[in-house]
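Propose amino acids for all 300 sites.
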């Protein structure tokens, strides 16, 4: 897919910020960075003058550089983060308004509420809303089974709900069985080391989620990275890796696992899955597909 002159691909999807946006962002960041260090220098000189003649018998709690970003960057725009909400995370939600930024003082809630469009939620399918179908059943399950089993699945933590969920999930994806995890990060960080180990090769997309990176590092397998969503780069890396074999011994790899995401959560891009699967079939490599952000909404 070729690139257009305006920083977009031929399909019309933006791949990089415009040069004007990149330059102005860099200038703004550099200004705040330099101005912050200037303020720190002035403050250090003033404090040094005030403390002249005084004997300090204790060390500072932390050095200035340790919280430079928090003091000089974050507190200038911290009203943009950690916004309190007072409704279900639906397509629209109610956000509590807070006082304007005044130095490093904490933001106080004003009591006002603003209805906002929700663009930062994982609630893609609306299951966390006040849903007439889901909500009563969720409350009923909480009353019956509690908020958690307080035990691992291997001991006393498996309930009939878990079994029914895994059977339903297996039927949905057309597989004989399924295993559910209580946390998306753990699915990758624990699941990948269970599939590959020493003597195996993991070929990972350059923009895979940190949970995949954690699982790949913890597996003990050799890890290589191909260019983001690029089947040509993947094929070249596969061909070279198979021909070279394992480091030092040059023995064949025990297993080759190609790891991609259905939808890349940080970029919102859809995986070029058909082409990647075709390459993996050609070189007899396994495909590990993370569909945390696509299953049920997009699918494979």
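Proposal:
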């Amino acid at each position: 897919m070729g690139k257009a002159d305006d920083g977009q691909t031929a399909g019309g999807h933006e791949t990089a910020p415009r040069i004007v946006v990149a330059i102005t962002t860099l200038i703004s960041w550099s200004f705040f960075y330099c101005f912050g260090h200037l303020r720190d220098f002035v403050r250090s000189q003033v404090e040094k003058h005030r403390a002249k003649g005084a004997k300090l018998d204790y060390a500072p709690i932390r050095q200035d550089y340790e919280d430079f970003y928090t003091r000089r960057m974050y507190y200038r725009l911290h009203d943009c983060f950690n916004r309190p909400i007072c409704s279900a995370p639906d397509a629209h939600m109610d956000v509590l308004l807070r006082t304007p930024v005044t130095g490093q003082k904490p933001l106080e809630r004003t009591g006002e509420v603003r209805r906002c469009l929700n663009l930062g939620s994982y609630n893609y399918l609306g299951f966390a809303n006040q849903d007439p179908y889901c909500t009563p059943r969720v409350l009923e399950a909480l009353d019956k089974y509690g908020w958690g089993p307080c035990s691992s699945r291997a001991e006393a933590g498996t309930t009939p709900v878990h079994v029914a969920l895994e059977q339903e999930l297996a039927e949905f994806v057309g597989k004989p069985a399924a295993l559910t995890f209580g946390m998306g990060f753990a699915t990758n960080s624990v699941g990948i080391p269970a599939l590959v180990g020493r003597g195996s090769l993991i070929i990972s997309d350059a923009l895979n989620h940190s949970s995949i990176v954690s699982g790949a590092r913890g597996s003990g397998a050799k890890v290589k990275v191909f260019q983001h969503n690029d089947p040509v780069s993947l094929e070249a890396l596969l061909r070279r890796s198979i021909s070279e074999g394992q480091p030092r011994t040059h023995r064949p790899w025990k297993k080759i696992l190609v790891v991609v995401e259905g939808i890349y959560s940080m970029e919102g891009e859809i995986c070029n899955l058909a082409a990647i699967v075709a390459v993996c079939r050609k070189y007899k490599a396994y495909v590990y597909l993370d569909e945390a952000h696509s299953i049920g909404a997009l699918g494979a």
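The first helix runs from residue 19 to 50. The first strand starts at residue 92 and ends at 98.
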